[in-house]
Amino acid sequence: YKSFMSQSWFLFVEGLVQRNTWGNMNLEFQIRNIESLHDLAEKRIQGIALKLPLHAVTQELIKTIEETGRKYPGKTSLHLFIHDEHEAIQTELLSRTCRVTASNAVIQEFKKVGEIGVLTGKAGLRWLTDEAPPELTVEPAGDGTNSSTFVLEPAEL
Questions:
Q1: Would you tell me which of 51, 106, 112, 145 could form a disulfide with 81, CB atoms 3.0–4.6 Å apart?
Q2: Rounded to an integer, what distance in angstroms lies between the CA atom of residue 145 and that of residue 151?
Q3: Is the pLDDT assigned to residue 130 strictly greater than 50?
Q4: How many whole angstroms separate alpha carbon 105 and alpha carbon 103?
């Protein structure tokens, strides 16, 4: 057993809030998993999705996507969602030759050309936006913790 302390580590803590089965039955948080936030994207993100309007798909755009793939090679699959607004149809394409690293740099590169999303096993496809969804905007309640990155919400009992 070796003990050490390090500053500037960001951790992802996963757990469950439940009532004690003994005593006064207070709520408690049981930790199920702790991971380094640095490694979390590589482990959990199975694919990066890029949503593009049909009229924007050009040789230049395809070349930009290929260059980004060569610049940031990795194990994460790349999915293209091409949509036609006039016909209200969309198709998904999986790139067989381009796999990228799941990193902020890749996300920023792809944000320049279209809407970006991530594919995970549990949550499926989630589109990333710069704006917080309205349901996540929480007014400070006086107790608990509310910040732009972490929100404690009341548990339903």
A1: 51
A2: 6
A3: yes
A4: 5
pLDDT tens for each residue of 28-49: 888 998 888 777 777 788 899 9
Phi, psi of 47 (to 5 degrees): -160, 155
List pLDDT tens digits, range 65-84.
999 999 999 999 999 999 99
Side-chain-facing half-sphere of 102: CA atoms under 13 Å: 21
Output DSSP code: residue 113: T
| Owner of token pair 């979390």 | 40
Q: Which of 54, 13, 48 is nearest to 30 (CA)?
A: 13
Within 10 angstroms of residue 1's Cβ, the number of other Cβ atoms is: 2
Q: Give me the amino acid identity at 49.
A: A
